[in-house]
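#help-structures
NK: newbie question, is this the right format to request a structure? protein is Anti-sigma factor antagonist
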Amino acid sequence: MFSERLQIRTTVTSRGITVVTPAGEVDHTGAPALEEVLTASGRLPCAVVDFSHTAFIDSSGITALLRANRSLRAAGGWLRLSSIPEGPLRVMRIVGLDHVIDVYPTLHAALRT
């Protein structure tokens, strides 16, 4: 998927966990696409967002993550966040997102548990 400033790559692990890797800025132009990818039906409702290539996130991105988390949990699954650079992580901590969605230092750690 692609928006003006965000590219999203999706892979599925052998255990059926969806790994979503946004690259660029998760803002009002890209947040809807991120939410759509995370809540796509037909998959195991478990996903990890690997933020290692994300430079920025705004309130639209935070809202997309909260909505996706609610949808995945309602379907019996979960959402985890990993590899978040300092700038986006600071924003997530300020709004308390790290108290609602589990945050892991690496993708490997998020997939391991």
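mod (FA): yep, format's fine, and the tokens are attached above. The radius of gyration is 12 Å.
NK: thank you!
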